[in-house]
Amino acid sequence: MDRPAYNYDIVKHFVHWSILWGAVSVLVGVIISFQLVMPQLNFGEYLSYGRLRPVHTNAGIFGFAVGGFFALFYYMVQRLCRVPIWSNGLARFQLWLFNIIIVLSAVTLLLGFSQSKEYHEMEWPIDILIAVLWVGFTINILMTIFKRREPQMYISLWFMMAALIGVAVLFVVNGLSVPVTLFKSYSAFAGTNDANVQWWYGHNAVAMVLTVPPLAVFYYFLPKSTGVPIYSHRLGIVAFWSLIFMYLWTGAHHLLWTPIPDWVQTLAMAFSIMLIAPSWGSVINGYLSMNGQWHQMRENYLVKFFILAITFYGLQTLQGPMQAVRSFSGFIHYTEWIPGHVHMGTMGWITLLICGAFYYLAPRLYGRELYSIPLANLHFWLVLIGQLIYSVSMWIAGVVQASMWHSLNDDGSLTYTFVDSLLAMYPYWWIRGLGGVIYLLGIGVFVYNIAMTARGAQTPQQAAQQA
């Protein structure tokens, strides 16, 4: 049989750049965490917390996560369709444009050019470049699927196609604006409509960037790393269609207790709670796939990454709907609880999954064994411990903060001032910074391990044998 000439070179380049931007994102995240407790670390206007924070979020979400999904999609689509990428030239163009956009975004955000929309801060010229980038990527993936030699459509392909279409619709609609100058525009929407569209985009960016693509990756790489099939392809398909239907209605749960109409809030709240079912459909599918294989959690270093990743996804999709209930949202919204919730997903679910997939790819991309499995295990434990310290400290801080905000004296006056609640956060912010440093050390171990594998350095076992 003819063996397709898969293009792994483009996969390798996206892996490298994704890792670079991920390391930058975590480093900036650690810096801004300490800026809150050490104001002297705000080095002037351009390196202040307000400028660095969107650089951190965009480098993490779009540089590391999206860059990683570019790499993994290109790898998976070739293997699942048994054909090479439709256009190698288009993929190379996408690689260059991707990195140009990341650099332009970082520079303009540091200079203060921003639409001030969460996860969509970049101004209109960069928005146009992002649209071009995504259209090129979408065409390349869809054409590869259309030309496939494998008749069966595996579940990962469904998640991939949904991400391609969903991101395009969400980004373009939320980015509609009226340009005033090269770096200034005003949203095409106004007032509550603007807020509603923004969080329709914002929460579904979480869906179509940080949920659907990683599930595509999970459904492919868990079976590949364990050597056993996914428990139920049918359950995966049912979870897919119900997830896609329910997610698009949930954005307004970010706007509870605001001037958004009550029926919109209630609709979002109801669908957020229902979202537990399809989310946990994939979690249960992953767990049941491990029937008789749980020993691999000890023996196969890759499995730890994927199973802990889907576990954090499951916890995230329980905590999120709980936060969408009006009474609970009224207590914890705008507190430190929210960063704890978000980072359980980004530091636990997304990063563990992508790192596990990159470890799986490393021997196949570089033609040699991973430099050090013990270092991969060390990386796992460092990022797990760092993430838990971060999230748990922020959950406790959020409850303390909310309790102080809601505490009243007998005469109805506030028991604590805002400054009192601010000062109470300092110990938790220090703990969060410590968790971030531990997590950054884990990322450093990961970068070193991949770099040594790429260089073809002798593994520690090989060096010991020669000695």
TrEMBL record:
Give the CC-aspect GO terms.
Answer: membrane
* Location in or out of the cell: Membrane
Q: Fetch the InterPro entries from UniProt.
A: Cyt_c_oxase-like_su1_dom (IPR023616), Cyt_c_oxase-like_su1_sf (IPR036927), Cyt_C_Oxase_1 (IPR000883), Cyt_c_Oxase_su1_BS (IPR023615)
Provide the topology term for how it sits in the membrane: Multi-pass membrane protein
Stored PROSITE patterns:
COX1, COX1_CUB
- Transmembrane stretches, by residue range? 14-37, 57-75, 95-114, 126-146, 158-180, 200-222, 234-257, 263-289, 301-318, 338-361, 381-408, 428-451
Where is it chiefly localized? membrane
UniProt keyword DNA-binding present:
no
Any single biological process term in GO: electron transport coupled proton transport
Q: Name one GO molecular function term.
A: heme binding
UniProt KW Transmembrane helix keyword: yes
Question: What domain of life?
Answer: Bacteria
* Keywords, alphabetical: Electron transport, Heme, Iron, Membrane, Metal-binding, Respiratory chain, Transmembrane, Transmembrane helix, Transport
- Every copy of the Cytochrome oxidase subunit I profile domain together lies at 14-467
The family line of this record is: Belongs to the heme-copper respiratory oxidase family.
Protein name per Swiss-Prot or TrEMBL: Cytochrome c oxidase subunit I
- Organism taxonomic ancestry: Bacteria, Pseudomonadati, Thermodesulfobacteriota, Desulfobulbia, Desulfobulbales
